[in-house]
From TrEMBL, chains A, B:
Domain HTH tetR-type per the UniProt entry, residue ranges: 6-66
Chain ranges passing through the membrane: 148-170
Transferase listed as a keyword: no
Record keywords: DNA-binding, Membrane, Transmembrane, Transmembrane helix
Keyword Transmembrane: yes
InterPro entries assigned to the protein according to its UniProt record, in alphabetical order: Homeodomain-like_sf, HTH_TetR
Residue ranges of the annotated DNA-binding region, renumbered to this chain: 29-48
Name of protein: TetR/AcrR family transcriptional regulator
Signal peptide from the UniProt entry: none
DNA sequence: TTGTAGTTTAACAAAAATGTTAAACATAAT
DNA sequence: ATTATGTTTAACATTTTTGTTAAACTACAA
C-alpha cells in the first residue's frame, strides 16, 4: 500500500504547537489552526479524528520533548553547579521558543484533572536531594529545597509568559526582549548560586 | 423608581472573578458562571448584555483593585527597602487569592491587542528609577532594573500560577501549599534584597 | 491506461455557546 | 388592592464550533 505522506499531519501538529505554545492562543479553534496551517479544517478530523485527540497528542509530544531534554541534564554525571548552569540554558531556550507551554499544561491540568507523571516526580525527587546536599555543603543558601526549585523555575518561566505585557510596558521590540532573556541566563545563575 | 438590587449583578461578577482568577478556568462559558453562581444564565445577558461586556468589566475591576493597592505602596513616603517589603506582602496576598489573574490578563492581551495603561507605565517608570538609585547606593546588586523587577514579580507570581502542578508534584494539600507561599514572602525579600 | 488507495474538498449534520423575547414573578409605592 | 417597575424564567433563535459523509482529486503501480 502506498504511504504517500504529504506532510500534512505533521504540519497540523507543528502549527497547533506554534499557536498554543509560541503564540499563546490557548483557546484556538480547529479552524484557527487549519487557517494558520493553510489547510482545510476537515483534515484535522481526517488525521486526528477529533479536536481533543489533536490537542492531547500535541501536549504529549511537547511533554516528551521537554522530558528528554531535561533528562539529559539531570542524569549527566557532572557537578551540581554545572547541572544548574545547563538546566538554565536548556530550559530558557525551550521557554523562549515555547513560552506558553507551561500555561497550556496548567489549563489542561484543570480541565482534565491530570496528575504529574511519575517520571517527572522521580526526576524532581532526585534533584531535590541533590539540592539539599549542596545546601549542607554550604555551597548554596539553606532553604526548603522546594522553594529553591520554585525560585529557579519562576525566574526562568515567568518573564516569557508575560512577554507581551513586558514589551508593551517597556516599549521594546522582539529583538530587544530576546536580548533581555538571553542576559537572564547568567543573571538567574548568579541569583540562585551564591 | 424602585432600585431593588437583589445583589445578583454583583454575585455574577464575583463568581466570574472567582472562576477566572481563583479557580483558573480561563475559558469558562456563561453557563459555567451562571451555574457556579446558582442563577439563570439569561441573567448574564440581562445585567451585562453580552458575555464580552461581563468579562471586560470583571477584568477592569480586578485591574483597578490591584492598581489601587499597588499605588498605596508605591506612593508611600517610605524607604525603598520598606517599599519592597510591603509590595511583596500586598502582591502575594492578592496572588494567593487570585493566582490566575495575571494569566487571564495575558490571554486577554493576545485576543484584544490591548496595551498597558499609562497609569501602570508611569508607576513602573518611577519605581525603576528608585531601583536604579538603590543600586547606585550599593544597597542592592547592580543589574538592569527591568531584570530586577522581572525577578521580583516572577518569584511572587509563578509559584501561584503553577499551584495545581506543584501540589501534585510534591504531594501536598492546600494548607501546606499556602504555608509554603506564606514562607515565600520573607524568602523572596531575602533573595532580592542583599 | 486503468485501478487502487491515500488525500483533499465541499456540503451537510450535530452540538455547544450566545443572544433575544415575552411572559411570569416579586416588591415597593400609590 | 392595584399599579408600576425591576427581576427572573423558559422558550426560542442565532451563531460558532465541531464532526461526518460522499465525491473529487492525485500519485503510484500493475
Amino acid at each position: 500500500m502506498a504511504q504517500r505522506d504529504t506532510g500534512t499531519e505533521q504540519l497540523i501538529k507543528d502549527t497547533a504547537k506554534r499557536i498554543f505554545f509560541s503564540v499563546g492562543k490557548l483557546h484556538a479553534t480547529t479552524q484557527d489552526i487549519a487557517d494558520a496551517a493553510g489547510v482545510n479544517r476537515t483534515l484535522v478530523n481526517y488525521y486526528f479524528r477529533s479536536r481533543d485527540i489533536l490537542f492531547e497528542q500535541v501536549a504529549e509530544e511537547a511533554r516528551a520533548e521537554m522530558s528528554e531534554q531535561l533528562e539529559s541534564v539531570f542524569s549527566a554525571k557532572i557537578e551540581f553547579k554545572e547541572k544548574v548552569q545547563r538546566l538554565i540554558t536548556v530550559f530558557m531556550d525551550q521557554a523562549i521558543k515555547f513560552p506558553y507551554r507551561e500555561m497550556y499544561v496548567v489549563t489542561a491540568f484543570k480541565r482534565t484533572d491530570k496528575t504529574v507523571p511519575d517520571e517527572k516526580k522521580n526526576r524532581i525527587k532526585k534533584f531535590l536531594a541533590e539540592i539539599k546536599e549542596e545546601m549542607e555543603l554550604g555551597r548554596i543558601k539553606k532553604m526548603d529545597p522546594r522553594q529553591f526549585l520554585m525560585n529557579l523555575f519562576s525566574l526562568m518561566a515567568y518573564p516569557l509568559i508575560t512577554t507581551c505585557i513586558n514589551k508593551s510596558l517597556y516599549n521594546i521590540n522582539d529583538k530587544e526582549y530576546l536580548k533581555l532573556m538571553q542576559e537572564r541566563k547568567q543573571l538567574i545563575f548568579d541569583m540562585i548560586y551564591q
